[in-house]
């Protein structure tokens, strides 16, 4: 009976990691990057605790975790690209306003 105990603990661990992954995904979808980072820090040591051998049920959950991570990563990359574009646009507008102000002060 003691043989089944580690598998049960691993299943619970995988379920806990899945729950954190879902929370990370939700935080990323609402652009709460600080919360997503905090949850990722909490999740990381749990991921490292996964045993090499898993039950079929746990493997299915791990694949779901991987899929969610993939979606979250793509969303984060898109958000980063949008932020870079917005930043560059804002800097261009600021530079244009500074040039206008410089010319206006010369008159």
Q: How many independent structural domains?
A: 1
Give the DSSP E fraction (strand runs of 2 or more residues): under 5%
Task: Return the string of H and E elements.
Answer: HHH
H/I helix tally:
3
What gross morphology would you assign? rod-shaped
Low-confidence stretches: none
Any idea what the radius of gyration is?
23 Å
Overall pLDDT score: 91
Please give the alpha-carbon distance between the first and last residues: 90 Å
Structural class: mainly alpha
Helix share bin: over 70%
Overview of the structural elements:
This protein is mostly helical. It has one domain (4-106). The protein contains 3 helices and no strands. It has helices at 4-29, 33-48, 56-106. It is rod-shaped, with a radius of gyration of 23 Å. The mean pLDDT is 91.
Secondary-structure topology with pairs:
Layout: H1 4-29, H2 33-48, H3 56-106
Helix pairs in contact: 1-2, 1-3
Keywords, separated by commas or semicolons:
FliT, 3 helices, bacterial flagellum biogenesis, chaperone, mainly alpha, 107 residues
């Amino acid at each position: 009976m003691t043989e089944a105990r580690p598998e049960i603990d691993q299943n619970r661990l995988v379920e806990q990691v899945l729950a954190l992954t879902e929370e990370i995904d939700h935080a990323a979808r609402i652009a709460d990057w600080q919360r997503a980072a905090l949850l990722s820090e909490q999740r990381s040591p749990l991921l490292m605790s996964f045993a090499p051998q898993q039950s079929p049920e746990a493997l299915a959950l791990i694949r779901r975790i991987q899929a969610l991570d993939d979606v979250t990563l793509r969303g984060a990359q898109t958000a980063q690209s949008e932020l870079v574009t917005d930043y560059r646009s804002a800097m261009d507008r600021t530079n244009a306003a500074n040039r206008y102000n410089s010319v206006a002060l010369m008159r």
